[in-house]
Amino acid sequence: MIATRKIKYLIIGNSAGGIGAAEAIREVDKAGTITIVSDEPYPTYSRPLISEYLAHPYPVEKMAYRQPDFYEKNKIKTLLGEKVIQVNPDKRTVKLESGTTLAWQKLLLATGGTPIFPEMEGNQLKGVFTFNRLDDSRAIDGFLNQYRNRVRAVVIGGGLIGVSVTEALLRRGIEVTIVEMKDWILNTILDEEAAGFEVQALAQTGTNIITGHTAEKINSYLPGEVSGVTLDDGRVLPCQMAVIAIGVRPRLEVVAESGIKINRGIVVDRRMATSAPDIYACGDAAEAFDFVYGVNRLTPVWPNAYEGGRVAGLNMAGTQTEYQGGTAMNALKYFGVYIASAGLVTPPDDSYETLINRYNGIYKKVIIKKGKLAGMVFAGDIEKSGIVYNLMKDRVDVSKFKEALVADDFGLASLPESVWRDWLAGAPPEGVPVITSIEKPEELVIGD
Amino acid sequence: MKKVYIKEDVCIGCGLCEVYCRLKHSRSKDLVKAYKKETPRPLSRLRVDESGIVSLSVRCQHCDDAPCIGACLTGALSRDPSTSLVIVDEERCIGCGTCTLACPLGIPKLDMAQKKMVKCDLCQDEEIPVCVANCPNEALLYAEVEEALT
Q1: Do A342 and B103 make contact, defined as CB atoms within 8 angstroms?
Q2: What are the chain A neighbours of B94 within 8 Å (beta carbons)?
Q3: Cα gap A394→A416, rounded to integer Å
Q4: Fewer Cβ close by (within 10 Å): the C or N end of chain A?
Q5: CATH number, domain containing residue A208
Q6: ipTM of the modeled complex
Q7: Nearest residue on chain B to A307, judged by CA atoms?
Q8: Are residues A171 and A80 in the same domain?
Q9: Are residues A276 and A383 in the same domain?
Q10: Does the residue A123 lie in any domain?
């Protein structure tokens, strides 16, 4: 069955990228038909909140990324719980698993990421989970409710997802061991010192962290159920559940045979357009411009997905817009420890300059190359981190005030006026009546 | 829409804007309680940055392209269609700090006790925001954006 009328804007994906695009399209084109398809049966929700949901109590309504009337108000048709299985760029159609074929004029691939699930003995056992979407959180929740007593968990992978699920499990009273292959947890987004803040917080919760090792297999003594994890050195960690959190890769199945150019993700230009006409991509599925590296890279973080989606949407609706670029950026607040990082966190070679300041339990570090910021890590206090991030994003030459960036009293006033003036409202207007001096000044009484 | 403009050349960095902001956003509306007793402790939505003789009273600019809105992980930040202000839905904010990292002014403040971000609302129930109204040196100006451009 082929729908007779072409959808003007078809969006695959109902998360940050897809919503960013739909909102941008509606700013420009109030009437063109928009349809969002997603294999998840829920209205758009905040994916990062799945850990809050698991931690309890967190009503699912509070996870809504947009108001309940969002789709209706913006005249967006949704096909939720429908999976796209194939994109055909020549015929300008997509095929759904249910058998329907949809025709489109402009298409956005905001398909997101999917957990990397290794070939490993025992990975099909009951009690093995991933942690990427609401249904994963619901599945773990159901498991914990059933086996309420004395569940121990092993989290395989100490990245963002691994630490998120750990925090949620701890709040549910579960004992957790994290197994991280590299030398420290959160190693892709934090340097060793900043990660130490998290390690210390985790230690206080009694969480066991094993670094420099991988899980080799998941054991089962009771048929079909998890009983432990065996590491590469032969060590056995007894547990009743295992969460596989070794990483996420772009979801590319739908474009696999479409001829659209793929590297590690779907390759897009600065307009977020793919190699096929009228097809755009954004978010975790896309490889878009990274302003720190100066090349296209995967930067699977929520803010970049939204921004990339927004740029894609504007271009789809005919407003030429360029993506300024994004880079890895994360703000963390696990266990009440605030950390923000962006770009590089450790200099790859000695052509980079690193400036560090430590005071009152606060750690600030910036990495500079040829006068421009290439990375930053703020731990313990992230206020004003946005100033540094935007200096990096706008590629401002910071050589003249680089020491100030990590100083205790850093602020906008530490920067040249040319920088902060633009960021503030601009020069104060002339000739606008000021609001005081309306009353007559009091008469000075002398010698009373 | 109106914005707060700063005249940094006459700002003496006294910090009264911060004091009045905190008072305004307290529950007790009592200065001593706001600073010493009230829990959760109210926070000033603005910040005075100083370096040498320059001091800047910095607050949310309710930017047109508001990077905080796009960066917000939960959808708690949005633009109020009636006032054009960037507003936060405290119910949905989890205080993750992503807006703080995205903002060029680094102004979204995190209320550690409540695990929420707090931000400037330009004192919607006042004719003039309290920081402007109480600036002793007229270093702050509340004016229409259009007015400022001409």
Answers
A1: no
A2: 49, 52, 333
A3: 14
A4: C
A5: 3.50.50.60
A6: 0.95
A7: B70
A8: no
A9: no
A10: no
CATH number, domain at A417? 3.30.390.30
Structural domain range at position A208? 128-246
Q: Please write the tens of the pLDDT for every residue from B25-50.
A: 999 999 999 899 998 899 999 999 99
* Cα separation, A341 vs A288, whole angstroms: 19
Q: Give the tens place of pLDDT for each residue, A164-218.
A: 999 999 999 999 999 999 999 999 999 999 999 999 999 999 999 999 999 999 9
Same domain for A242 and A145:
yes
Residue ending a domain, choose from A316, A346, A368: A316
CA angle, A388 as apex, B40 and B86 as ends, to 5°? 50
Please give the biggest Cα pair distance in chain A: 99
Other beta carbons less than 10 A from residue A438's beta carbon: 7
Q: Would you say A317 and A308 are in contact if contact means Cβ atoms under 8 Å apart?
A: no
- Minimum distance, in Å, between the CA of residue B21 and any CA atom of chain A: 17
Shortest CA distance to A352 belongs to which of A361, A363, A344, A362?
A344
Q: Do A352 and A432 reside in the same domain of the chain?
A: yes
Q: What is the pLDDT confidence band of residue A426, given thresholds at 50, 70 and 90?
A: confident
A236: left (phi over 0), alpha (psi -120 to 50) or beta: beta
For chain A, positions 283-322, list CB contacts with chain B under 8 A: 302-303, 306-307, 310
Residues of B in contact with A409 (CB under 8 A): 50-51
Distances (CA, A) of A400 to A403, A408, B10, B129: 8, 18, 26, 36
- Is A429 close to B104, i.e. CB distance below 8 A? no
pLDDT mean over B79-86: 95
Are A209 and A278 within one domain?
no
Same domain, A21 and A107: yes
Amino acid letter for position A279: I
Cα angle value B72/B75/B81 (rounded, 5°): 110
- A386/B47 CB distance under 8 A: no
Indicate the number of domains in chain A: 3
User: What is the average per-residue pLDDT within B67-78?
Assistant: 98
- Are A266 and A301 within one domain? yes
Domain co-membership, A80 together with A141: no
Q: Do the Cβ atoms of A414 and B73 come within 8 Å?
A: no
> Cβ A306–B70 below 8 Å, yes or no?
yes
pTM: 0.94
Closest chain A residue to B107, measured at CA: A384
Q: Considering the domain boundaries, does residue A2 fall inside one? A: no
pLDDT given for residue B28 in this prediction: 92
**pLDDT tens, residue by residue, A215-261:** 999 999 989 999 999 999 999 999 999 999 999 999 999 999 999 99
Asked if residue A78 belongs to a domain, the reply is yes
Q: Do B74 and A49 touch (CB under 8 A)?
A: yes
